[in-house]
From TrEMBL:
Biased composition (Low complexity): 40-50
Signal sequence residues: none
InterPro entries: DUF2996
Chain segments carrying region Disordered: 1-74
Stated name of the protein: Type II secretory pathway
Natural source organism: Prochlorococcus marinus str. MIT 9302
Matches recorded under PANTHER family: DUF2996 FAMILY PROTEIN (PTHR36341)
Amino acid sequence: MEENLELNNKISDNVNEANSSEINVSKSEKINNQEKEININENSNNSKNSLVPKVDRKEDNDSPVKTIPKQIKEPPIEKKPFQEFINIHLIPALIEEINQRGLEINNINLKNTNRPIAGDKCWVINCEIKQTCNFWLSFEKEDITSLKSISLSKPNQKPSIIESFLIDEKRITLKLIISRVLQRLNGQKLIGVN
């Protein structure tokens, strides 16, 4: 009986050992299987990712802010300094318009001098059109929006009339000044502008 008991104990120990090794084997198999699944998943993810190009993704906060400088809009020529407007824009434009009508300018200039007839000191554009007429366009101040007047005369004569010029206009432009000068010259039948 002792032998049987001892045999039973040995069998039971062997069964327990076998069960524990099976458990260890099954645990180890499960762990191996899980590792294989993880490796398979990683490999499949890597193969998917290898098809997609890698892009360095930086957070928006990391990239420097690019400031686009605003383009400075140049002011209209009428807003430029008085002498620049007169000498660079108005006088050349007047010369061109008068030349287009087949007339020739002998002399044209801007001076701070006495206005014809009135005699007060102001800015005066004096223009002498060859064998046609003279005109004086006067600006009370060094500003194209200041009070203006115009005087006309035939060649080699002094002006006898002074007229207001562009007094009702709210916005003075280069084209407006030129058109009104030509209108006054034509109104006196000094130039043939149609």
